[in-house]
Specification:
The complex is a heterodimer of chains A (999) and B (527). Chain A has twelve helices and 61 strands. Chain A is mainly β. Chain A is globular, with a radius of gyration of 31 Å. The two termini of chain A are 43 Å apart. Chain B is built from 19 helices and eight strands. In chain B, the strands form four sheets. Chain B has a two-stranded antiparallel sheet with strand order 1-5. In chain B, strands 2-3 form a two-stranded antiparallel ribbon. Chain B has a two-stranded antiparallel sheet with strand order 4-8. Classes of the chains: A mainly beta (999), B mainly alpha (527).
Chain lengths: 999, 527
């Protein structure tokens, strides 16, 4: 089946090459200028309407090209000036484009089609390449951080290619995934990770991307039905333009440095604490060196990113080929990412414009070496009075905590941290990953009924990740970890992994569009079918020591989890008098993750937009150049992020190391798995009310939106009544949650002259999340579902989902402070229920990890050949649990009772916490306000103009990323996913210089 | 050319239609996991599912040592039966204190646990997990299922015996629920999984159920000492009955001393003998102790790996100046010690007279000023991952030590106590007690006279013989010394000198997570 589909695509592609142009040609020439100031518009696209025949204007705004004799109309479009249709005339055409209408004439992709921005009824935001964040960007989503109201993008850390967590309007799920659906050129991607890469999106070259379109409310997303509850991000890659081949080359060189180290004690401070508090046997273990372990593990990291693309047209077929090579070191020593990417897009138009084909193939090859991030925590904890290396060859020459009592086995102090530098240098963790995403969209306008188009979209997303982890057998971390049957010790690790993903996609729909002139209306309808299949094959390999002694073997050679979605969908757009727009859509999704009776979910939506500016009462008010009111309602579903087969109980065979002895034999045990037969779709109903505005001849534009999302039948891990299931917790459909929010965006063109332009954009988002139901029966003594494991103790958690509170509230003890010094008093907490004891009953819900509001600000100034810009972001109301301080900032941590010395957070100098007792881990003292203002990026560019004998255009740029952060938060970085700050890979500060050449 | 295009479009349309009609595409199955009908298609499959019933005593999940846990909402390493049961039975008493900060772990000794205590929640779900597995297995092993799966003859007989043992394991866990939580939800193989909310069974109802089940299966279990190692036999059922009857007054208000005598006697007369050397009870090769051990949880350093059970019991008591390699392990966890009350019951702390006195005192203070400081309180050296010959166990991380749930010594003590309380044969009792003491002292020097044999002596003797084996809380409750002010120990009730606590703490609370999931459940009084 899959092979047939691919074959079909190939045949279509080959056909495209051989199709000749049939009609007689004529030549049109002209010049495109700005309607106001008459400046020439370079780089504007001039196309014959309904075809892909066209060229770009040159530096003087001029164009000249052959068009078919039958052609009557040209479509002129420019990124800055929008689109304009003009009739073809003989002689030199003079075409004036009006910048004012640019934004609103913009055509944006939406689910299964495209629409003019001014005709949208749903909440749709677009960011195109000119507004992308500049600099060393390794994953696509980082191009739009802070650019869109309602979209929070938080990078997962500073490792190369580590990606980000994206939340659209707060996320509407608890146990299911909160990730938005990402669609690349019409091909929906799986959000699941790929073995061997830090983030699946890192396998898409950001340089190939033209626009991001973010669908936020249900009237925009419901056409995607399932998987759409958390928003949809449509990524459109760059396309070729008809004409002579044009080449574009860009190169960047970046240097990343650690922006801030964790605040830990220095050697002298550790010495004085140990000397003052420790018994003599521990004092004697103090070393005499001064080692800053963080300096030992971090480095300045150089990176390069080079991209070359060529685009043009072969007859009726525009094409674009791109090639990229990225080589990025990590600031944590040994880490490296190399990525080679190629992209091909072909957009042939055939059969008198009746057949359009959009063919995209992207291929990416990455080679990574992953640094051992365990070293980050060890560098914070490792005794700074000790040297990095010793004269002994044991443990690879790295200094380690020893315990003479263990000399017969490892010689190591078992529970002490291992040498951070050794952890990095002795672990060689490498991967090779290939991923290809490709699809073909065949858009056929029926010959006998041109109002009707049939669109077939077939695609694939295949990846293969392989990797090896080699740890030398002298490494302390796995020293003599296995004793074989002959009582011989083996150490280290030499393991491999392999994962293959095969996702296939098929979509077919009909699009009918008709102007109903008699009633001054237009109708557009689509109806379609879709099938998506996500298959993963995980190969299992034995656990081997460095010398390849088998420690354990897997039960099965591989596992092949799979899930599939099958859907039908339809949408109707009805536009009356170009003023009132009605949209309705419905989608029915079937998911393999539910039993046959619950499998299908129906997701409807309806929306209405009113172009108020077109009404008489606004026509003459010049201040208001545009005004549109939108209201929408829709229901979306969610089934991502839950088990594939949980509706019946499956038996799992235990591992060889998990066997049980009966008599003289050891049996691998069959265990029935927990299941939930009645599991079904989680549903989110979204209401959205919005106003899009344009003022002062659209020099000020923006939107104001209010939304309310109510999720019911929450996929929520709940406790199962004891005695009724094989698992005491299972993801069931119990509970409900609300997100309400307000978004505001404004774009202001402050200055617009020939030599100087100044643009300012600002967006603000306010979101409130509230859990309204969680359990089957209400028990006031049940506080909620606790989660969020921390470092410290065994099994401590710091977060909770409770009814009446926001998702992810902290569940902590109320710290009592010394009224004089204002310092927290060691192990003194508020006895909330006044029963005389401090236990879980005294924990309370406090704040939360998600911001209550966040803001993005960007500005750009162009002066002659110079341009400069910056991007800032702020989050307000987000709190962070400072786990690094709570787990290391105590005397007990520094003077470990087992008999060794640790370093710890400098917080201990302030609190002087003993670390005795157990409740202090959950003190609200450690839940700290992490509101922040971050200057993400400043950039400056210079357009050197024509160089190399006027053969190429050269631009130069420089920028700094992660310039500074202003925050009260006491830890390393206030911006962190998940609410717990522990051993976070620091985000580097990156300096980038770049050049680009167009020729 | 146009024709060709049409041909492809038509082909494509057919392709679409073909896929659309194929809704079977949504019926997907796992690759390696199998359904019940596959597992139970062969006698070998039955045995592997049966092994899980026993294995869920020892292991935390289906992957050793961790990574695929049975119980959710608790750290997997602490989620096995023995580690949780041990904490509930020992940390709440004078026998043990712990230094760690695991959530809820200090509540035991402070006696201020609540219905959200994660350890109690974990233990409760672990017990019901095993009950649920047994209920399902009993159904799978029904005569009708065996017939329909074509299993007959000796295979069918073996599986019927598995079914009987499943009923024993279920009775044992209902006894655990009854002893620790008082009441609890009640489900048997007759309740279809997931279809009904279990009703709450009172402590009396659970007592009757456990008693009737054990008596019902007594005849079908194999003779004492005749089963495979690690599987229950008649003596295991008798031992549980004896223990049940010894505490009947606590459970139901009605004493059953005579029944306790009857069943402990059955065990004692079934051919068990004490092993000669007390110090060899809890060693890496203690599977050799079959003359004394009646029913064990089995561990193996290579094949039955987990972070609870005897891994915990061997590592956690090592800290301070102790040498981990002396115990056959790769390091101590610096956790559990004992209060001064336990060593005070022995003539000396060095084991000179009574060899059962196994303490480590170097660098340890007898008094406890800080529960979270390992060197406060004597360490206990009872569990060692060393063989009788002094070699290390098969793994330095995961000890091979098996854990006896029932051993002969307990039955001697039950017999003696029930005889004293219920007008039984005191002379015979004295012989049994002196058997224990002769082994402890290595000779008759520690033997006692009939006049010294009192119930209070037996409580102390139980501590001396059975300390750290999971009996102490039940014993103190039976002697009215658990919550009362008549018997104190350091930090009892969270006070250094010890204090009484409310009487409702004689049973643990039902976890609030289950109360909020099952409307039929009422919380125990006081919580």
């Amino acid at each position: 089946m899959n092979i047939k589909r691919l074959l079909f695509v190939c045949v279509m592609a080959m056909l495209a090459f051989v199709m000749p142009a049939l009609a007689q040609d004529k030549v049109v020439t002209g010049k495109v200028t700005d309607s106001k100031d008459g400046t020439a518009l370079a780089g504007a696209s001039v196309m014959v309407k309904g075809t892909t025949i066209g060229v770009s204007t040159d530096a003087n705004g001029a164009f000249s090209f052959k068009v078919p004799g039958t052609a009557t109309t040209l479509v002129i479009s420019s990124v800055s000036h929008g689109n304009l249709e003009v009739a073809i005339t003989s002689g030199t055409m003079s075409i004036k484009l009006d910048q004012a209408n640019a934004a609103l004439n913009e055509v944006v992709v939406i689910g299964y089609g495209s629409a003019r921005k001014k005709d949208l009824t749903g909440s749709v935001s677009t960011v195109s390449s000119k507004d992308f964040i500049k600099g060393a960007i390794t994953t696509p989503e980082q191009l739009i951080i802070g650019k869109v109201a309602g979209v929070a993008i938080t990078s997962n850390g500073g490792a190369p290619g580590s990606g980000s967590t994206i939340r659209v309007r707060g996320g509407s799920s608890l146990s299911a995934s909160n990730d938005p659906l990402i669609v690349v050129d019409g091909m929906p991607l799986s959000n699941n990770g790929i073995s061997g890469v830090a983030s699946p999106l890192s396998m898409i070259n950001p340089n190939d991307i033209e626009t991001f379109t973010i669908l936020k409310d249900a009237s925009a997303t419901a056409i995607y039905g399932s998987r759409a509850s958390n928003g949809v991000i449509l990524i459109t890659t760059k396309r070729g333009k008809k004409g002579k081949p044009t080449f574009s080359f860009s190169s960047q060189l970046s240097s990343a440095t650690i922006s801030k180290k964790a605040d830990v004690l220095n050697a002298d401070q550790v010495k004085s604490i140990v000397n003052a508090n420790a018994p003599t046997n521990i004092i004697s273990k103090l070393g005499s060196t001064k080692t800053d372990w963080q300096d030992q593990i971090y480095q300045n990291a150089i990176g390069t990113d080079n991209n070359l693309s060529v685009s043009g047209g072969i007859k009726n077929m525009p094409y674009r080929l791109s090639f990229g090579y990225l080589n990025q070191n990590g600031i944590l020593k040994t880490g490296n990412l190399q990525r080679t990417s190629i992209g091909i897009t072909l957009n042939p138009v055939l059969l008198d414009n009746h057949l359009k084909i959009d063919l995209n193939v992207k291929g990416t090859f990455s080679k990574s070496r992953f640094a051992n991030e365990g070293a980050i925590g060890s560098a914070v904890s490792f005794d700074p009075t000790q040297p990095t290396t010793t004269n002994s060859a044991r443990y690879g020459g790295y200094w380690e905590w020893l315990n003479a009592n263990n000399f017969a086995s490892t010689g190591l102090e078992t529970l002490a941290p291992k040498n951070p530098l050794g952890q990095l240098m002795q672990r060689d963790d490498r991967s090779n990953v290939q991923r290809s995403i490709g699809n073909a969209v065949i858009d056929y306008k029926l010959h006998f009924l041109p109002d009707l188009r049939a669109i077939l979209n077939v695609g694939y997303d295949v990846s293969q990740g392989t990797g090896t982890v080699v740890v030398n057998d002298s490494a302390a971390s796995q020293y003599r970890r296995f004793k074989d049957a002959g009582n011989v010790f083996h150490g280290g690790q030499n393991t491999e992994y392999k994962q293959t993903k095969t996702n296939t996609y098929l979509n077919f729909y009909l699009n009918y569009a008709k102007d109903l002139k008699s009633i001054d209306s237009r109708i557009e309808a689509i109806a379609g079918y879709e099938f998506q299949d996500y298959k993963t094959k995980n190969n299992n390999y034995p656990d081997l020591t460095y010398d390849k002694t088998v420690v354990s073997t897997p039960n099965y050679a591989f596992d092949e989890p799979e899930n599939a979605l099958m859907s039908v969908m339809g949408r109707l757009n009805f536009t009356i008098q170009n003023k009132y727009i009605l949209t309705g859509s419905v989608r029915r999704d079937g998911s393999s993750k539910f039993n046959a009776d619950n499998r299908y979910g129906v997701f409807p939506s309806a929306a209405f937009a009113w172009k108020m500016k077109s009404e008489d009462f606004l026509k003459d008010i010049d201040v208001i150049s545009d005004l549109k009111f939108r209201i929408g309602y829709g229901v979306t579903g969610q089934q991502d992020g839950i088990g594939n087969y949980d509706y019946i109980s499956y038996y799992n065979l235990s591992s060889g190391t998990g066997s049980y002895q009966l008599g003289n034999a050891y049996y691998q045990m069959y265990r029935p798995g927990g299941y939930y037969y009645n599991r079904k779709w989680e549903q989110t109903a979204t209401s959205n009310i919005a106003l899009d505005y344009g003022l002062f001849n659209n020099r000020v534009t923006g939107s104001i939106e209010y939304y309310k999302k109510t999720t019911t039948d929450l996929l929520n891990e709940i406790n199962q009544p004891a005695g009724t299931n094989f698992s005491n917790k299972i993801v069931a459909n119990v509970g409900s949650m609300e997100n309400t929010g307000f978004e505001f965006s404004i774009n202001y063109q402050a200055i617009k002259t020939d030599n100087l332009t100044w643009d300012i954009a600002f967006n603000a988002t306010f979101n409130k999340n509230n859990i309204t139901k969680l359990t089957i029966s209400d028990d006031p003594t049940y506080a909620g579902a606790r989660y969020g494991g921390i470092s410290g103790g065994t099994g401590n958690t710091v977060l909770i989902n409770s009814i009446g509170f926001n998702r992810g509230a902290y569940f902590v003890y109320k710290q009592v402070y010394d009224p004089k010094s204002g310092k927290p008093i060691d192990n003194l907490f508020d006895d909330k229920n006044r029963d005389g004891v401090i236990n879980e009953q005294d924990l309370y819900q406090y704040k939360g990890a998600d911001p209550t509001s966040f803001f993005g600000f960007s500005t750009n100034v162009n002066y002659k050949k110079w341009n400069a810009g910056l991007v800032m972001r702020a989050n307000i109301g987000n709190y962070l649990y400072n786990n690094r301080a709570s787990s290391t900032g105590t005397i007990r941590n520094i003077i470990n009772p087992i008999g060794y010395i640790n370093n710890g957070s400098s917080d201990v100098l302030y609190t002087n916490f003993s670390g005795n007792g157990t409740n202090y881990y959950l003190s609200d003292y450690y839940v700290q306000n992490a509101s922040f203002l971050r200057l993400d990026n400043i950039n400056i560019g210079y357009n050197a103009g024509r160089v190399f004998n006027n053969k190429a255009n050269l631009r130069l740029s420089a920028n700094v990323q992660n310039v500074f952060v202003i925050t009260e938060y006491k830890g390393l970085d206030p911006e962190m996913n998940g609410g717990i700050d522990n051993n976070f890979y620091p985000r580097p500060r990156t300096f980038v210089i770049g050049l680009s050449l167009d020729f | 050319m146009k024709k060709n295009i049409f041909k492809y479009i038509i082909t494509a349309a057919f392709l679409v239609g073909g896929v659309a009609s194929c809704t079977k595409k949504l019926d997907l199955l796992p690759t390696n996991d199998v359904t019940a009908s596959q597992v139970y298609s062969s006698p070998a499959g039955y045995k592997q599912a049966f092994a899980k019933l026993y294995g869920s005593f020892a292991l935390t999940g289906n992957q050793g040592p961790s990574g695929n846990g049975d119980i959710q909402g608790i750290d997997e390493g602490t989620s096995d039966f023995l580690r949780l049961y041990w904490k509930a039975q020992e940390l709440s008493t004078d026998e043990a204190v712990v230094a760690w900060g695991d959530p809820g772990i200090q509540d035991f000794h402070n006696m201020n646990w609540s219905s959200s205590n994660p350890m109690l929640t974990g233990l409760y779900y672990r017990a019901y997990y095993q009950i649920t597995l047994c209920n399902d297995f009993i159904n799978q092993a029904s005569d009708a299922n065996l017939t329909s799966r074509g299993i007959s003859g000796a295979d069918a007989d073996a599986i019927k015996l598995y079914k009987t043992e499943a009923r024993f394991l279920r009775a044992f866990q209902y006894w655990v629920i009854m002893d620790l939580f008082g009441s609890g939800p009640f489900a048997t193989e007759n309740d279809k999984l997931g279809s009904v909310l279990p009703q709450q069974a009172s402590r009396t109802a659970l007592f009757s159920y456990v008693e009737s089940e054990l008596k019902a299966i007594e005849g079908s279990l194999v003779a004492a000492k005749a089963n495979e190692y690690g599987r229950a036999d008649k003596a295991a059922a008798w031992s549980l009955l004896a223990r049940l009857y010894l505490n009947a007054q606590v459970y139901t208000g009605t004493a059953k001393w005579a029944d306790a005598i009857t069943y402990s006697k059955k065990v004692i007369e079934a051919g068990y003998t004490l092993i000669p050397n007390y110090a060899q009870l809890m060693l890496a090769d203690n599977h050799l102790n079959t003359s004394e051990f009646i029913f064990t949880i089995n561990y193996d350093g290579l094949k039955t790996q987990n972070w609870g059970g005897t891994t915990f019991l061997a590592h956690a008591p090592i800290g301070g100046a102790m040498t981990a390699s002396d115990f056959g392990v790769d390091g101590g966890w610096g956790g559990v010690r004992t209060t001064k009350n336990l060593p005070a019951m022995f003539p000396d702390v060095t084991g000179t007279a009574d060899k059962r006195s196994q303490f480590y005192t170097g660098g340890q203070s007898l008094e406890i000023s800080d529960l979270t400081k390992f060197t406060d309180g004597y360490a206990v050296t009872k569990f060692k991952n060393k063989t009788r010959a002094g070699a290390n166990g098969s793994s330095l991380t995961f000890p091979d030590i098996d854990f006896p749930i029932f051993r002969l010594a307990e039955q001697y003590l039950i017999y003696a106590e029930a005889s004293l309380r219920g007008a039984g044969d005191v002379t015979q009792s004295l012989t049994y007690i002196n058997n224990l003491r002769t082994r402890a002292y290595g000779n008759a020097s520690g033997n006692i006279s009939a006049g010294q044999l009192t119930t209070d002596f037996i409580l102390d003797e139980r501590a001396r013989e059975l300390y750290w084996e999971g009996f102490r809380r039940t014993d103190l409750i039976r002697y009215n010394k658990f919550v009362e002010s008549s018997y104190l120990w350091p930090w009892k009730g969270g006070v250094k000198s010890g204090t009484s606590v409310d009487a409702y703490r004689k049973v643990y609370p039902i976890p609030s997570s289950d109360i909020s999931s099952n409307v039929n459940l009422k919380q125990n009084t006081g919580y």
